[in-house]
Design goal:
The protein has 228 residues and is mostly helical. The protein folds into two domains: 2-43; 67-223, Lysozyme. The protein is built from ten helices and no strands. Helix 3 crosses helix 4 and helix 3 (70-80) runs parallel beside helix 8 (168-181). The protein is extended, with a radius of gyration of 26 Å. It starts with a helix and ends with a helix. The chain crosses the membrane at residues 12-37. Keywords: Membrane, Transmembrane, Transmembrane helix. This is Lytic transglycosylase domain-containing protein. It comes from Paenisporosarcina antarctica.
Length: 228
C-alpha cells in the first residue's frame, strides 16, 4: 500500500513538472510563430492547408454559376452530348469561373479550362512526353490543322481560324470534346473527370459541384413549370 501511494505521489509531481516545462515551451513556439509567420505561410504544405481552410467555408457562397456562361455551356454540351452542368463544375474547379489570374498554372496548364498543351494539340506531337507541357511553338498551339494532325482536342468554336484555350468558347468546346471522348457522352462521368485530372480528390470536387448544379437546375425548372 505504501509503495502504491509513493508511485501516485511521484506521478503527480511528474505531471506538475511537465506543466511547468510546457509553459515556456508554448510561449517560445507562440513567439517564433508570430515572428516568422510570413515565412511559414510560404512553405508549400502550410500554404496548401491554409488555402484549403479558407476555401472550405466559401464553397456554399461561391458556387453560383455566372449567368453569362450558361449559354456557352449549353451549346458546347449539346454538341458533344454531355451535361452542361458538368462543364460548369469543371470551370468552377479549374479557374473559379475564369477569375484566376493568370490563366496559366505552374505546371503549364493553359486557359479557361486549364489544358496541358499536349492534350490540347495532341500527344502525337514530337515534343510531347511526361506531364504534357511539351515544346510546341505558339503558332502551332492554336492551329486547327496542326491539332487535327496530332490528334488533339482543341476546337475552334467561334470559327476565327484559331483553337485557343484562352478564348472562352474554344476552351469550353474543347473541354466538352475531351470529356465526351473520355466517357461522359456515355454517362461515365467519374471516368471522364478522372481522365481530365488523375486525382480522386479532383473527381470528388467536380462531382460535388456537378451535383449541386444539377439540383439547382432541377429546382429552377420546377419553379418555372409551376409558375402561371
Amino acid at each position: 500500500m505504501k509503495i502504491r501511494k509513493k508511485k501516485k505521489q511521484l506521478s503527480v509531481v511528474a505531471k506538475g513538472l511537465l506543466i511547468i516545462l510546457m509553459v515556456p515551451i508554448s510561449m517560445t513556439i507562440f513567439v517564433l510563430t508570430s515572428v516568422y509567420w510570413g515565412d511559414i505561410q510560404r512553405l508549400p504544405i502550410v500554404h496548401t492547408l491554409t488555402e484549403s481552410l479558407k476555401d472550405a467555408p466559401k464553397k456554399m457562397l461561391d458556387m453560383d454559376i455566372p449567368e453569362k456562361y450558361i449559354p456557352i455551356y449549353k451549346e458546347a454540351a449539346k454538341k458533344y452530348e454531355i451535361p452542361w452542368t458538368l462543364l460548369a463544375a469543371h470551370h468552377r474547379i479549374e479557374t473559379k469561373f475564369s477569375t484566376m489570374n493568370p490563366l496559366l498554372s505552374p505546371v503549364g496548364a493553359e486557359g479557361h479550362m486549364q489544358f496541358m498543351p499536349c492534350t490540347f494539340v495532341g500527344w502525337q506531337h514530337p515534343s510531347c512526353s511526361g506531364k504534357g507541357k511539351g515544346a510546341i511553338p505558339d503558332e502551332d498551339k492554336t492551329n486547327p490543322d496542326v491539332i487535327a494532325k496530332y490528334g488533339g482536342y482543341g476546337i475552334d468554336a467561334n470559327q476565327d481560324g484559331k483553337a485557343d484555350p484562352y478564348q472562352l468558347e474554344d476552351a469550353m468546346f474543347s473541354a466538352a470534346n475531351y470529356l465526351a471522348s473520355s466517357g461522359a457522352a456515355e454517362g461515365n462521368l467519374e471516368k471522364a473527370i478522372f481522365m481530365y485530372n488523375h486525382s480522386d480528390e479532383y473527381v470528388k470536387e467536380v462531382l460535388y459541384y456537378y451535383q449541386k448544379y444539377e439540383e439547382q437546375h432541377e429546382k429552377e425548372g420546377q419553379a418555372a413549370s409551376s409558375s402561371p
